[in-house]
Design brief:
The structure holds two protein chains of two kinds. By secondary structure, chain A is mainly alpha-helical. Chain A has three domains: 20-59, no CATH class; 85-184 and 253-397, MetI-like (MetI-like fold); 185-249. In chain A, 67% of the residues lie in helices and 5% in strands. In chain A, the strands form three sheets. A three-stranded antiparallel sheet of chain A has the order 1-2-7. In chain A, strands 3-4 form a two-stranded antiparallel sheet. Chain A has a two-stranded antiparallel sheet with strand order 5-6. In chain A, strand 1 and strand 2 form a beta hairpin. The two termini of chain A are 41 Å apart. By secondary structure, chain B is an alpha/beta fold. Chain B has three domains: 2-125 and 227-235, D-Maltodextrin-Binding Protein, domain 2; 128-223, Periplasmic binding protein-like II (D-Maltodextrin-Binding Protein, domain 2), CATH 3.40.190; 244-332, no CATH class. Chain B is built from 14 helices and 14 strands. Chain B has a five-stranded mixed sheet with strand order 10-9-11-8-12, with helices on both faces. Chain B has a three-stranded parallel sheet with strand order 4-1-5. Chain B has a two-stranded antiparallel sheet with strand order 2-3. In chain B, strand 9, helix 6 and strand 10 form a beta-alpha-beta unit. The N and C termini of chain B lie far apart (48 Å). Classes of the chains: A mainly alpha, B alpha/beta.
Chain lengths: 402, 342
């Protein structure tokens, strides 16, 4: 107080020009920025509309209800050339999500194993994992896709060879050809819903049992046989129900047709090439992240666990990994996002993902701006949802101080 | 892929922010920059748009680009080529990246109206067909039920294919590629039983196969594919120049004027020929089009008449050996017909 009084000579705040008023300044800057952004967006949009009008084109999303007219190779929901563009985009989105989800799961598992493998004391395992990481990390993902598509899957037996094979061995049910992997398709009969319900009930019961078992272990120090009881609840119980309701499941086998195998289930080489390439490519990065995470946990932590009498497996699972996860999760999120975005390389091998389908629509309808907006919106949404989930997971794993 | 997205984004950006000139004047722009920017086939479609080992472009579509350059500048070399995939081609033209799209593009009503283009000249009357390996023993497209068919995405071909199989109550499995080269490779590797595109393209692709004699083009032609140059709508001056460059080639064939005899024909007594070649004293045809008086002479000197161009690129003088057929002159049972030049 004394100091302030000494400087200004009175109790009033110092008089400064409005130009130097920090509060006013920041408001002015923000307003100016906002005006510039709004003006730029308005100008761009206005220009688009004017230029489109001059080219006798219209902007808008009404075209999504027009008939698509083209067929798609991989459809998980009902689709024909009579469906709308909107439906085609849905097919593409689902295909993108399927390959991204499958890729993320596989990449995580492979990455975790390879990352831990690189730290192994076994010379051969550690070196093999290093070679894997260095190869896949240093090749562009597009080349990895081509490698699988043209270098591996295209060289598998032709469909004619398979036809011949079926003649020689009529009991064969599983075929690998350069047109994909054929296998029997399950056909769910009446009452299969009951089995599914039993499965869900089994899982819920298993979770409940685990919670009870943990509580009992804390109270008495004795651990009930969690693994066996849970296996029984999740697998045996639905199996008993399945038999009880009369085995409502039959198989549809793939048999030779005129040009392709008919019936059954097929996983096409386009999906396989993309899925394998994305998984193995991303797994090499995840392996490094996992290794960094484990290395990041101080050695004293595992030594302390051993001193407490934990076995090496227990020490890793209960002490090291939970701490490593805190280091692993943030960069892991980036890898998941990369994988999702890299799935747009599907066009290279003709997998009907969002970009491939959108590109076809763009070409047939000429609606470039609309399609590009849809692409960007969807990829941003998928990535943000993934980020949100991973941030939640990260918060859950974060150090909780008690 | 990245290139395609960039093209599309540039297209969007240019549509959005560029080009504020009140009325499109492509001829003025072309004259100002000193060359014609021509969109051609980017997958080396022999006979239509392909580069030789020295990097020189040749083909029926390329000849049309050269003809326009010859008409505007009197110099057929003043063309710059933009190789385009089927998918990139429309945004490239819409955005103004190219002045002419001469990329074996089918003229259809939706492209003419909805996409904002103008088509008139048809430099190749084509139709969609199927190619199969001979070992399949297939003799007709109607036997293809259940087959896997390789097709390029974003083409009228893709739509006709769906319609044809549906109309004939047949079933098929599309295997769709964005680039023709990838479709070629997949067909070659046995990923598909049949390959479908315009018949002219099939002949060209067949030649690229390791052993062309193992493959055959089925007799059915399932669609009409009039291929021709497209320009942006609302620029009738430029549209006229491109259209009449093609008609000049056809008219030259009708008159019997060739690269070899064009100078001689200038002295012809036939008033039609004199008018066409700009030898009539008060002829204003060239000027009315916005071109020099001798525009037709320059075109014929540069690329020859339509018949010469056809034979050199896709006919007997080329490995494709496609017969004139529908592309013969109207006087010889074909569809090539030039409106009167007077």
């Amino acid at each position: 107080m004394a100091l302030a009084d000494a400087r200004t000579g009175s109790g009033e705040p110092p008089k400064v020009s409005l130009l130097y008023n920090p509060a006013l300044r920041s408001i002015v800057y923000q307003v100016v920025t906002l005006v510039v952004i709004v003006a730029a967006v308005w100008y761009a949009w206005n220009n688009v509309v004017q230029n489109l009008a001059r080219a006798n084109m219209t902007a808008g999303f009404g075209f999504l209800n027009s008939r698509a007219g083209f067929d798609l190779a991989q459809t998980l929901i009902a689709y024909s050339s009579d469906s709308t563009y909107f439906r085609a985009l849905q097919v593409g989105l689902i295909n993108t999500l399927v390959v991204a989800a499958a890729g993320i799961v596989t990449a995580t598992i492979v990455g975790l194993l390879v990352g831990i493998g690189r730290l192994s004391h076994n010379w051969l395992i550690a070196r093999l994992c290093t070679v894997y990481v260095e190869i896949f990390r240093n090749i562009p993902p597009l080349l990895v896709i081509f490698f699988w598509y043209l270098g591996v899957l295209a060289l598998l037996p032709s469909i004619r060879t398979i036809f011949q094979h079926v003649k020689d061995d009529p009991n064969a049910v599983f075929f690998i050809s350069n047109r994909g992997i054929y296998m029997p398709a399950p056909i769910f009969g009446e009452g299969f819903g009951v089995v599914l319900a039993a499965f869900v009930i089994g899982i819920i019961a298993a979770i409940g049992f685990t919670i009870w078992a943990n509580a009992r272990q804390r109270a008495t120090g004795k651990r009930p046989p969690v693994l066996w009881v849970n296996l029984g609840l999740i697998l045996l119980f639905p199996l008993i129900v399945f038999v009880a309701v009369g085995s409502p499941l039959s198989l549809d086998y793939a048999v030779p047709g005129s040009f392709n195998m008919k019936g059954g289930m097929v996983i096409g080489p386009e999906f396989l090439a993309l899925y394998l390439a994305l998984s193995l490519y991303t797994a090499s990065f995840i392996a490094e992240i996992v290794r960094a995470g484990i290395r990041g946990v101080s050695k004293g932590q595992s030594e302390a666990s051993y001193a407490l009498g934990l076995r090496p497996g227990q020490a890793t699972r209960l002490v090291v990994l939970p701490q490593a996860l805190r280091i692993i999760i943030p960069p892991l999120t980036s890898q998941y996002l990369n994988l999702i975005k890299n799935s747009s390389l599907a066009v290279a091998v003709g997998y009907a993902d969002l970009v491939a389908v959108g590109g076809t629509i763009l070409n047939q309808s000429g609606k470039s701006i609309e399609i590009i907006s849809i692409w960007m919106l969807i990829y941003v949404s998928i990535s943000l949802i993934t980020s949100l989930f991973m941030n939640w997971f990260n918060a859950k794993m974060a150090l909780v101080e008690r | 892929m990245a290139k395609k997205i960039v093209t599309a984004l540039v297209g969007a950006a240019v549509l959005g922010l560029g080009a504020t000139a009140a009325q499109a004047d492509t001829l003025g722009d072309v004259k100002a920059k000193g060359f014609v920017q021509c969109g051609v086939n980017g997958s080396n479609l022999a006979g239509f748009g392909a580069q030789d080992s020295a990097g020189n472009w040749a083909g029926l579509d390329v000849d049309l680009c050269k003809a326009v350059a010859a008409a505007v500048f009197g110099d057929a070399t003043k063309v710059k080529y933009t190789p385009l995939s089927a998918k990139d081609r429309f945004p490239a033209l819409q955005s103004g990246e190219i002045d002419i799209l001469a990329r074996n593009t089918t003229w259809s009503v939706s492209r003419d109206s909805q996409l904002g283009f103008d088509f008139r000249a048809v430099n190749y009357y084509d139709g969609q067909g199927f190619m199969v390996k001979k070992e399949l023993g297939v003799k007709s497209a109607l036997e293809l039920s259940g087959a896997s068919v390789c097709v390029q995405s974003g083409t009228t071909t893709e739509l006709n294919l769906a319609d044809y199989f549906r109309a004939n109550n047949m079933d098929f499995k599309p295997v769709v590629f964005e680039a023709q080269d990838e479709a070629d490779a997949a067909y070659n590797a046995g990923r598909c039983d049949a390959y479908t595109t315009d018949a002219s393209g099939l002949y060209s692709i067949r030649l690229k196969m390791a052993n062309p004699d193992d493959h055959m083009v089925l007799p059915e032609i399932i669609s009409k594919e009039p291929l021709g140059p497209a320009v942006r709508q609302n620029d009738s001056k430029w549209f006229d120049i491109v259209t009449w460059s093609h008609y000049a080639m056809v008219a030259a064939e009708e008159f019997g004027i060739t690269t070899a005899n064009v100078e001689e024909m200038k002295k012809s007594a036939n008033p039609d020929i004199k008018r066409f070649l700009g030898e009539e004293a008060d002829s204003t045809i060239g000027a009315d089009l916005g071109l020099p008086k001798d525009w037709a002479v320059q075109i014929i000197k540069a690329v020859g008449n339509y018949g010469e161009s056809f034979e050199r690129n896709v006919g007997e003088g080329s490995p494709l050996k496609i017969a004139r057929g529908l592309n013969g002159l109207w006087t010889k049972g074909g569809l090539q017909y030039a409106p009167p030049i007077r």
